[in-house]
Structure formats: structure tokens, C-alpha cells
Amino acid sequence: MVDPVMTVADATRLAQQGGQALQRGDAREARRALQPIAAAGLANAQIWMMLGEACRMEGDLYGQEQAADAVLEHDSNALRALVWKADCRRAAGDRRGAASWYGAALRLAENASPLPPSLTPLMQSAQASANALDAEFGVALDAGLAQRGFPVDRRSPALARALAVMRGTETAQSELQKPSSFFFPDLPQRRFYEREEFSWAPSVEAATDAIRSELRAALADPALFKPYLTHDTGRPRIDFGGMHDNPEWSALHLVEKGEPVTELASRFPKTLEALEQAPLCRISVRSPSVMFSLLQPGATIAPHHGMINARLICHLPLIIPGEGALRVAGEARQWTEGELMIFDDSVEHEAWNNADRDRIVLIFDIWRPELSDADRKGVAALFETVDTYL
Description:
This protein is an alpha+beta fold. It folds into two domains: about 10-110, Tetratricopeptide repeat domain (Serine Threonine Protein Phosphatase 5, Tetratricopeptide repeat); about 190-365, Jelly Rolls (Sandwich), CATH 2.60.120. The protein has helices at about 10-25, 25-40, 45-60, 60-75, 80-90, 95-110, 120-145, 155-165, 200-205, 210-220, 260-265, 270-275, 375-385, and strands at about 190-195, 225, 250-255, 260, 290-295, 300-305, 310-320, 325-330, 330-335, 340-345, 350-355, 360-365. β8 and β9 (about 330-335) form a beta hairpin. α4 (about 60-75) packs antiparallel against α5, α5 (about 80-90) packs antiparallel against α6 (about 95-110) and α5 packs across α7 (about 120-145). The protein is globular.
């Protein structure tokens, strides 16, 4: 809320005082001048940056992180604020969070041409901190895998190579698969898999009418559907073609982050029963995921890559009102109600609905059939370790 007493002229005067105090190295005086501007709701990114610097000089990590958050609300690519956020997360013991913020800052700096000399020491410090966190993570990863039955001498060659790619000691070699999080090597480079390849597929397809009936009952309560992508304020903002917090692409999760949504299970018994025969991908708090995906008329999902190439994504089309399609690496296929569409989402893909009504498909993920049982367990153990690492 803006303080009705403070005028823009007052804020300008205080900002000048705060800037002058910072130049003198007087952090306390700078905060005394700048904090009222923030409290009045009149602070812009520059004022928040100055306030953050004053907090940093005084060792006030809480205030520094608040300022960094405010700057990033104005400009998600503000390098100094990204590094501050990382530093504060690291000091708070949030190593995974800190690594994500350092990574975002370093990637941005790498693409900046040229990087201002004033930021060079900051980015050198960020790189050193990121390297230290990466070393700590490597030790924890090996220990966690060993505890879960996968010490170095019990990892398959493929799993060992996957870990090397993850750790950056080996480069992923892949024509199509470009997963954003984890690459498992030597898997077939395929866009789509055919439904006839899976013995469990007919039983799922046979349940289409029952699943659609449960879905239609849920559609009477549209509040059940939430935007599929929501911004996690604890991580750097990622642009996704305007789809973050956008109801044009929404979802109703029955199983989310590997766990059934308890309050919904009784409303979708036939749906969940139909998937019991499918080899659902079970990876820590990441999968399986089972959801109804709704794409509004005229909506498009921008080209993107999924996170993990050890799984496949299945669409069971339920309500297909007209022209729309899924394109995977240049090959487009239209949905047909009741016929599974199965694809590798680590390959670049996009979708659109050009019909005049909502398109709804049931989405779930399965293990890639080429992945051995031992390697499935290894991948699961890997992400159990990652997801319990703080």
C-alpha cells in the first residue's frame, strides 16, 4: 500500500540522501533514508538495489534477500540480485536453492556481451560458490546412491554415464532428446511410440467412456482445474511463452509428485483403476503424475523439452472438439478420442487447440520400455537422493 503522506518529491529526496550515504560507506544512514520509501510502496528497482546493498554492508541477510526479491520482481534478469538471492539461500542452508540461483546468474552472465567490469568480481565469487556447492553435492550424491544400493561398483555402465553427464564430466550425445534435468544415454531416438507396442494399452483405452464420465462430473466444478504451470518463488523465473499462472493451459491432478491426491481419489475410481496395469514411472517426488490436461480454445503450448528422458508421456484423448495437434520434433499428430498417443517429451514438442471448445486429455507417465529394471531402480535411487538433499 502506498503511504498517502509521502509524495514522489519526498521519495526522490530520500533516494538522493540514501545514494549519497552509500557512496560514503554509511549503510545505516542509507537504510534510514531508503526504508521509508519501500514502506510507502514507492521504491523502484534502483531504490531496492541500493537498499539491498546497504543491508549487505550491514550483514542483514534477511533484508538483503527481501531487497533481492523486490528487484527480481521488477527485473528477473538483474544479475546482482540473482547472486544476492543465491548468497542468502546458501547462508540459510538451502543448498539446492542456492545452486539454482547461482546457475541462473552464471548462465545470464555467460550470454551477456560484454559483462560490465563492475560485475566481474561478483560473478567470480558466484562461480566459486557454485563450484563449492557442486562439490558438496557430488559427495552427497555418491553417499546417497551407496545407501540405496548403488555404490560405484554396482552401477550399470549406462547409469554411470548418466551420472557423468549430470555431473558435467561427460557431454550428452543425442540427436533429439534434450531433457532439461536428466539425460540417460543410449536410449532410442524416437518421437512417438505406437499404442500397439504396449500390451496394457487396450485395457486403458477400453475404459475411455468410464473415465470421460468421471471427468464430466468434475467439469461441473471448474475450480478444480488450476493453471498447469505456476511460478515457484523459491526458484528463478523461467519464461514459458506466457503460460505461467495462465488458465489457458490448466490441469486437474489425480496423482501429483508421486502421491495420489487423497481428496480426489473417491471421485475417479474408474480412472485410477484403469491405470493399474500401466508401468507408471515412479521417481521420488517427481512421478508418477496423473492428470486431466485442459487446453482452452485458441491456446498454444510453446515448444519445450521435458525434464527426464527415462520416461514416456501418454495422452488418452477424452474431449477433442476439433482441429488441434501435438507436434514432436516436426512430426504432428492429431488426437483421436479413446486412442492413446505416446511420446518422448524430452524431445522438443508443442501443442495447440484451434477448436472452439476446450480440449481435454488424460496424461500419465510410464517408464521407457528399453530401460532395465535395475536402471529404473537406479534412476529412482538417484532422484530420491537429489530430492532429499537440502
